[in-house]
Amino acid sequence: MEKKVSKIGVLTSGGDSPGMNAAIRAVVRTGLYHGLEMFGIMRGYQGMIEDDIYQMDSRSVANIIQRGGTILKTARCKEFFELEGRQKAYNNLKKRGIDGLVIIGGDGSFRGAVKFSQDFDIPCVGLAGTIDKDISGTDFTIGFDTAVNTAVEAIDKIRDTMDAHDRIFVIEVMGRDAGYIALHSGIATGAENILIPERKTNMNDLISSLLEKERRKKLVNLIVVAEGDEFGGGNNVQAILKEKLPNAEIRVCILGHIQRGGSPTCIDRLIASRMGYHAVESLIEGRHNVFVGILNNKMHYLPLQDAVKNKGKISDEWMKIVKILAS
Q: What CATH fold (topology level) applies to the domain 144-260?
C-alpha cells in the first residue's frame, strides 16, 4: 500500500510557459484544502539542490492566475543529472518532511523526475507546461494555446504589410522538435506553406508552387517555419528562396520569445487549474509517478517514463488541410 503524502513540493522546470502560475495556484490551494502542507521550490531542480524552498499558504498564490511566467522561476540544472546532485535535493526535501512532488515542465523535466523517483522514495506527478505541445498522452499542454494566439496576432499584423508591398514573408515560430505552433498558427492565418520538423519539405515543390502563384499574380505569400525544421529556421529558408526567386521580395521575421510571455488565455488557465487539482488528488489517492493529461476532455494518467519516451504526432489530415486551403 502506498504511503500517504502529507507535505507536497511544487516546482516549475525547463522553459517557462503561460499558465504555469495558474497550475501552481491550483496545486497549492488543492493541497491546503486537504489539510496538507505545501512548499514552493524556486528555480526548479536547481532550487531543490540549493535548498531554496519555502512554505506556501493560500495568500502565496493570490492574484497570480492571470500572470505569465512563473512565480517560482525556472532553470535548467545540469547538477541534477548526477546522483550526487539528486542526493542533495533529496536531503533538502527529507529534512522538511516533503513526501510528494508536482513537477510542471516539459519532457526534460519529466526525465529528471523519473530518475529522481527511481533513486529515492519521493513520489512525483508531472504536468505538461510547454508551449511546444510535444508530449503525447494529452490533447493540451499548459501554455500552447497562449503561444499560438500570440503568434497568430503577430502574423495577422505582418500580413497587413505583406499585402501592402506584395511580398513573400517567412515567419519563424518556436518549435525546436515539434511543429504544432507552426501548424496551428499557419492554418489560422491562411499560410500558403508550413514547414515543420515532423515532415520533410521538398524545396523544389515549394519553389514551383510560388512560381505558379506568381503566374496567377498572387504575389503575397506567407510561409510559416518552425525553428527546428530541416532547413534550420527562417533565415536559411529565406536564403534558399532568394537564390531560386531572385526577383521576389522576401522578408523574414523571427517571433522568438514573445511567444513564451503574456497573460495566459482562458483555455490555458482552465487546463492548468484542472491539471493542478488532479495532480494533488493523484498523490493523495496513491497514483504516483504519473503524468496528468487531458484526452477527449477526460483526465488521462500515463506513467512518467512513457510521457518521456513518446512524442505527439502530426497526422496526414492536418497536412492535407494545409495544402487544400492554401491553393
A: Rossmann fold (3.40.50)
pLDDT digits (tens, 9 = 90+) for 298-316: 999 999 888 776 665 777 8
> Which pLDDT value is given to residue 85?
95
Phi, psi of 199 (to 5 degrees): -125, 135
Domain parsing of the chain, residue ranges: 7-143+264-309, 144-260
pLDDT tens column, 121-180:
899 999 999 999 988 889 999 999 999 999 999 999 999 888 888 788 999 999 888 899
Fold of 7-143+264-309: Rossmann fold (3.40.50)
Task: Just list the catalytic residues.
Answer: 132
